[in-house]
Amino acid sequence: MKNVELIKKLELSGALSHKEFVSLLSSYTKSDMEYAQSRAVAISKKHFDNKIYLRGLIEFTNICTNDCFYCGLRRSNCLIDRYRLTKDQILECCRLGYPLGFRTFVLQGGEDPFFDDDKICDIIGSIKKEFPDCAVTLSIGEKSKQSYKAFFSAGADRYLLRHETANAPHYSKLHPKNLKLKNRLECLYDLKDIGFQTGCGFMVGSPYQTAGCLADDLVFLQEFRPHMVGIGPFIPHKDTPFANEPGGSLELTLFLLALVRIMLKNVLLPSTTALGTISPTGREMGILSGANVVMPNLSPKSVRDKYMLYDNKISTGCEAAECVSELKSRIESIGYITIVDRGDFK
Ligand code: SAH
């Protein structure tokens, strides 16, 4: 089947086989890409009109017990300056974000044992008490089902846990032995079962990734049916084992965003910081490939350059929450508007 026919089939049936995805990903042309982007934009406009949801990202700790080979926060990186925010500092971030129009706060961090379940629940409760009309999203890694239940009972609404790659041998090339794809996927199923709006996702162009791995990712999304999908290019970090690996491509990332929109129609799909990092107009191109969410950085300025997942991560331009008016006008310049809304999955 020709690539355009495959993309049409994906739109109509919401599914392709692994083999069809491999064929599409290995042979798509510029015009296939343009076709996918135009369908993705039409589908996102049908579901969300021209509205873009804002999420305020609060990177509250860069301390991590994990040692993922790609990540600048990995335990073995002794060259980074580690920090934790206090509950008051986190609440201050929300107080800054609320009048700017943020109605979702995303707490993201390394796997920092200092923040045990009680502390996380206390932070969730305090945010919910002061901002009852806001959603709280957690992105704090793999925990037990019991912990996830406690977070949900404390009021957390959503959870982001990228699966990173749905191919087990590939997963083991990106992570140390103690981290297993099976466990990551169990966490995702637990989260969904508990009632979280659940997000998975993957890096594009991570070392050892093949078209077959990406096809595994897309087939997994088809089965799992997440509420949110985070996709960004892999970008090397100089103090990790992958320092000299090439980064992921802008075009392939945009093509995958478009395919995910075509496949999952109403999914919440951010145009990620990593995309904005590899291209000055990456955020806009993400939206023009079907993304409908942006996540500006609400972390205190003093810690922003310490949450370096990868080299040159942007944090002071229009992705910074205090420059949200610039971000809004850039979004308006491509025919979209940001709205003040929790932006739940519907
Ligand atoms: N500890 C949390 C948050 C991790 S950081 C967790 O495990 O979920 C959030 C995401 O950043 C990761 O899931 C990963 O996909 C992405 N990331 C990490 N290092 C990266 C790199 N070098 N390039 C691009 N994305 C990266």
Features:
alpha/beta; binds S-adenosyl-L-homocysteine; 14 helices; single chain; 3-stranded parallel sheet; 346 residues; TIM Barrel; 43% helix; 6-stranded parallel sheet
Question: What is the structure about, briefly put?
Answer:
By secondary structure, this protein is α/β, with parallel strands linked by helices. Helices cover 43% and strands 12% of the residues.
What do these coordinates show?
With 346 residues, this protein is an alpha/beta fold. It has a single domain, classed as Alpha-Beta Barrel (TIM Barrel). Helix content is 43%, strand content 12%. The protein contains 14 helices and 9 strands. Strands 2-3-4-5-6-7 form a 6-stranded parallel beta sheet. The protein has a 3-stranded parallel beta sheet with strand order 8-1-9, with helices on one face. Strand 2, helix 4 (87-97) and strand 3 (104-109) form a beta-alpha-beta unit. It is globular and about 55 Å long. Bound molecules: S-adenosyl-L-homocysteine. S-adenosyl-L-homocysteine (SAH) binds at residues 70-71, 108, 110-111, 139-141, 161-162, 164, 203, 232, 234-235, 237, 274, 309-310.
